[in-house]
Amino acid sequence: YFCVFLGRHSTPLHFAAGYNRVCVVEFLLAHGADVHAKDKGGLVPLHNACSYGHYEVTELLVKHGASVNVADLWKFTPLHEAAAKGKAEIVRLLLKVMIDRNASKKNRDGATPLDLVREGDQDVADLLRGNAALLDAAKKGNLARVQRLVNTDNINCRDVQGRNSTPLHLAAGYNNLEVAEFLLDHGADVNAQDKGGLIPLHNASSYGHLDIAALLIKFNTVVNATDKWGFTPLHEAAQKGRTQLCALLVS
């Protein structure tokens, strides 16, 4: 099963992977086909499967030891292929099995997988952006996008490039009530502190977001929590002249 054909110097496994012949792929792998074999462009069978979005074949190849970080002669990885072709489920699978989750490898032209995503392929772009996508969605109040992206591992992720805010901090600060409620219903930490020691209630109080503040209180936030400067949410509200919020916090 190591023979090659004229043309791209492909092996039978290359062809089976590219044409989504799952049973053939299983047979070839069971009988010793080389999962790492490269054609004359440096592509392995996994490149083929990912480029065409063949999920089950991709799973099989990875299960049999295919490297998800392998690059062809143009330094395209399977993730580059899947991203460029808009194969969201393949991108999700590859990111799941990548130990370092390094989605920023560059091809020969200096492009990362994210750079190759076509306009309109929001799902693929969000997957590649990782936590940044969820934080952006929470900030912008895009509930559907938050619902699609959130999971138990990232619900309390941090904006490491900024104030170390969580999605809930951003939803509270930008008055995105539906997003805040969804995050809280799914286990967001109501008392998470950013790098200044502020909790989401500080944000809501500072900007006068009464409904958000009431929601956070309903979920048992610490009303008298202090930041690194000793400011409570009441300090924030009073300093900014948020009279209704002051009344809520005092009550």
UniProtKB/TrEMBL annotation:
The keyword Nucleus does not apply. Transmembrane segments: none annotated. This is Tankyrase. Pfam families: Ank (PF00023), Ank_2 (PF12796), Ank_4 (PF13637), Ank_5 (PF13857). ANK repeats lie at residues 8-40, 41-73, 74-106, 163-195, 196-228, 229-251. SUPFAM superfamilies: Ankyrin repeat. Keywords: ANK repeat, Repeat. SMART domains: ANK (SM00248).
